[in-house]
Design brief:
Number of strands: 3
Distance between the termini: 33 Å
Strand content: 5-15%
Helix content: 55-70%
Largest sheet: 3 strands, antiparallel
Number of helices: 9
Structural class: mainly alpha
CATH architecture of the largest domain: Up-down Bundle
């Protein structure tokens, strides 16, 4: 049930896009939890829109990997187990380490600019208590590393993991102090990139990604 979610007003333009973004934030902020059933009709009532944009938003959330579609216009928020968290995190670490190995001098200025920007945005959102949006900036940081490797296959594989990486963050329910620590690690990695210390980035990534992941 979604009784805990307040009535939400959405502008009449781009209703499906807005519904998608708002539902995504509700999941990433932990308001809608893993295993929770969400229904099209109920969401349409709470968002104050017809069922059509809600249906489209749920379809996109299912394609992204945050929900699984069910019969009768409903979906279930994907739930990640401890074992799945470790498997996903191990693969993620391997992909990001590969990306670091593929970096060259030409891509570094753009990568530093992107990662510095999203780290600042991440910290601002944390200070405002916007954890769900902060998690998206966390993903932007790591996606920037992947994209800088300039390997389309690597980028595509990593994108397929993105939703589950996001759900691991939600499942961990990290404290504000922990989130600031990981933000500080982002800053360390940016400085290492500036210094050309790619091996240092790879080493820090292991600590950063595998933190609090159960065996």
């Amino acid at each position: 049930m979604l009784a805990k979610v307040p009535t939400i007003t959405i502008d009449q333009s781009s209703l499906a896009d807005q519904a998608y973004e708002k539902l995504k934030i509700l999941i990433l902020s932990g308001v809608l939890k893993g295993g929770e059933r969400i229904q099209e009709e109920q969401l349409a009532h709470q968002f104050g829109v017809s069922r059509t944009p809600i249906r489209e938003a749920l379809r996109r959330l299912s394609e992204y990997g945050l929900i699984t579609s069910k019969a009768r216009s409903a979906g279930i928020v994907v739930e990640i187990t401890g074992k799945e968290s470790r498997h996903i995190s191990e693969v993620r670490l391997s992909l990001e380490t590969l990306a670091i190995r593929r970096l060259d001098a030409n891509c570094i200025p753009t990568l530093i600019e992107k990662t510095s920007k999203v780290t600042a945005e991440y910290q601002l959102l944390l200070s405002q208590g916007e954890v769900g949006q902060a998690y998206e900036k966390d993903s932007d940081f790591h996606n920037a590393i992947i994209e800088a490797a300039n390997n389309p296959v690597l980028t595509e594989i990593y994108k397929r993991l993105d939703a589950r990486i996001q759900l691991i963050r939600v499942t961990q329910n990290l404290s504000a102090d922990a989130l600031y620590i990981y933000s500080a690690q982002h800053m360390q990695m940016v400085q290492m990139l500036k210094n050309g210390d790619f091996s240092g980035v790879a080493t820090l990534l292991e600590t950063h990604i595998m933190h609090d992941i159960p065996d």
